[in-house]
Description:
Elements: H1 8-34, H2 36-68
Amino acid sequence: MKFQLPSFRVALVLLSLLCGLLGFGLVVAGIWRMHPPTAMVVAGVALVAYAWRVDRAASGLAALAAARGEG
């Protein structure tokens, strides 16, 4: 079986995820240098918001699959 590179769309999604994580880490690290408790609050709120966004995306994909009759 020949190895295939991921499609361009998959590569963009992975690159977007990596850039988002790097940006998140840099923002929290910058806040940490000023006030560590605030950085913990910002990190928690951002992670909850990200989880909500991922949940909405997953439910949208499930609804799309159901509409197509795939699930």
